[in-house]
Design a protein that fits this description.
- With 278 residues, the protein is α+β, with helices and mostly antiparallel strands.
- The strands form three sheets. The protein has an eight-stranded mixed beta sheet, sandwiched between helices.
- It has two domains: 148 residues, Fructose-1,6-Bisphosphatase, Chain A, domain 1, CATH 3.30.540; 108 residues, D-Maltodextrin-Binding Protein, domain 2 (3-Layer(aba) Sandwich), CATH 3.40.190.80.
- It is built from seven helices and 15 strands.
- The structure holds D-MYO-inositol-1-phosphate.
Length: 278
């Protein structure tokens, strides 16, 4: 663990691999896409392309850095020995992908000794790649761009300070019980904000909050692979990322918001006990 890589080095590798997986998924979308299986519930689908993307990402990362660990949505779980672990959602927004809606992405984060230090969220059908490395800011690049976009935009989040004027994104899990609980929370949030958006890919919701096209994002029940890469994009854009009652973001709650909105939004959400997990 002596020669730990710099965040920028990990980000460069993640970006190359995410774009390669994005190309695979784009090509796959030209053919017939169907759910290959269901996971936690009949609505929680996995396509053959989810698996192919995770396999490609895993293979490329292992070839480049054989001693690293990998945690992936479709089953990869290896601690590794190098101190680096990759957290991969090979296709965030699977249901959008299945329905040929454009909000889906490949999301890859790199942790060093348990801390996320780099993240890429690559959305081929939207034509954008979001990137962040610890201490180096968050950026949005136009796509396609081989190598570096000459004009990446630095992200700084929304300047909104009033929750009642805030556009807030959220997401829902796949289990019926969890959804019922999420609906109850939503009923309380909706009258207190400008409006709610549900785009269907948590990593992209976090990036949209990072670029200020949303004011904030919250969700109860997402998994680490849903928020690891988008989370560092959000924090490097100046947003506060956290969970319940001062705790770190977790499966119980992920909130990303400009500092002035974080407290009011958190307090609105914290009134409910965590619902059952998917
Ligand atoms: C899902 C999406 C969705 C969020 C769910 C996630 P998947 O990921 O990010 O927006 O609300 O919590 O599970 O299943 O499309 O990879």
């Amino acid at each position: 663990m002596s020669d730990l890589p710099e965040p920028g080095e990990l980000l460069a590798l993640a970006t190359t691999v995410a774009r390669e997986a994005g190309d695979l998924l784009l090509r796959g979308r030209l053919g017939h896409v169907e759910a290959a299986a269901t996971k936690s519930s009949p609505t929680d689908v996995v396509t053959a392309l989810d698996r192919a993307s995770e396999e490609l990402v895993g293979r490329r990362l292992r070839t480049a850095r054989p001693d690293d660990g990998i945690l992936g949505e479709e089953g990869s779980d290896d601690a590794g020995t190098s101190g680096v672990r990759w957290v991969v959602d090979p296709l965030d927004g699977t249901v959008n992908y299945l329905y040929r809606l454009p909000n889906w992405a490949v999301s890859i984060a790199a942790e060093v000794n348990g801390q996320v230090v780099a993240g890429v969220v690559h959305a081929p059908a939207l034509g954008v790649t979001y990137t962040a490395a610890l201490g180096e800011g968050a950026f949005r690049s136009a796509f396609p761009a081989s190598g570096a976009d000459p004009h990446p935009t630095r992200l700084t989040g929304s300047t909104e300070t009033d929750l009642s004027r805030s556009l807030v994104a959220t997401g829902f899990g796949y289990g019926a019980e969890r959804r019922a609980a999420q609906g109850a929370v939503l009923a309380r949030v909706l009258p207190r904000v400008r409006d709610i958006r549900r785009f269907g890919a948590a990593a992209l919701d976090l990036c949209a909050a990072a670029e200020g096209s949303l004011d904030a994002y919250y969700e109860r029940g997402p998994h680490l692979w849903d928020w690891a890469a988008g989370g560092i994009v959000a924090t490097e854009a100046g947003l506060r990322l956290g969970g319940l009652h001062g705790r770190a973001e977790s499966v119980d709650l992920v909130v990303a918001a400009p500092p002035a909105l974080f407290g009011p939004l958190h307090d609105l959400l914290a009134a409910d006990p965590p619902a059952d997990r998917d």
